[in-house]
Design brief:
By secondary structure, the protein is mostly beta strands. The protein has a single domain, classed as Jelly Rolls (Sandwich). The protein has three helices and 15 strands. The N and C termini lie far apart (about 60 Å). It binds D-sorbitol-6-phosphate (S6P) and zinc ion.
């Protein structure tokens, strides 16, 4: 029988593992449309289709008040000038918020409110916490040289809407330029690639 109290898991912040969870893998080819530079994307896929990130999730129960959580491990790397990043999503249950807790490494979260269009890039790194309110699309970017490992905790019924992002993408793009991390407008980056 399901025991509601046998709920202890172990995680490893260096390896990004979670006991009892088989990590889902996202390789570069699955991120078609995410990166601004189509040519660099095609070249990187052809050159070995690297593992970009894994997510190891725990879904203890699915009631209205329940929580799910997952450990994301986003590897360092770039496609052209743009840092490795997650697909990004809104929650299907739009008002579902999420708390991201940084465990290892250094990066940014791109946040974009679908109601107002307001967007920002917030630091996500070891010992830092980013709160993602409802109605806010979120994407994680690794701007460092080691894996970015984080824990995301969200309502069990949040769900994922990837389609809206696939259509519109995020307004901001995070690139390395002259050895520095820069957050640029996608429209400007696309124009410079033409
Ligand atoms: C789930 C939570 C994270 C992401 C993970 C991968 O609500 O936000 O666990 O699933 O960062 O990102 P994505 O966009 O591929 O789901
Ligand atoms: Zn989420």
């Amino acid at each position: 029988m399901h025991d509601p109290f046998s709920a202890v898991r172990r995680y490893d912040p260096r390896a990004g593992t979670l006991s009892g969870a088989v990590p889902a893998e996202r390789r570069l080819r699955e991120l078609a449309g995410v990166f601004a530079d189509d040519k660099a994307f095609a070249a990187a896929c052809a050159a070995g289709n690297p593992l970009v990130y894994t997510v190891a999730s725990a879904e203890p129960a699915d009631g209205a008040g329940d929580l799910h959580y997952g450990i994301g491990t986003l590897y360092p790397g770039r496609v052209g000038a743009e840092f490795f990043q997650t697909k990004g999503h809104l929650h299907a249950m739009r008002d579902a918020a999420e708390t991201y807790i940084g465990l290892r490494g250094k990066g940014l979260m791109l946040l974009e409110d679908e109601r107002t269009g307001a967007c920002t890039a917030q630091p996500l790194e070891a010992n830092g916490i980013v709160y993602v309110p409802g109605f806010v699309a979120h994407r994680t970017v690794n701007t460092g040289n080691e894996p970015l490992v984080y824990l995301g905790v969200y309502p069990a019924r949040a769900g994922h809407d990837y389609g809206t992002i696939a259509e519109k993408n995020f307004k901001q793009v995070v690139v390395e330029r002259n050895g520095r991390v820069e957050v640029l407008a996608r429209a400007d980056v696309l124009a410079s690639l033409r």
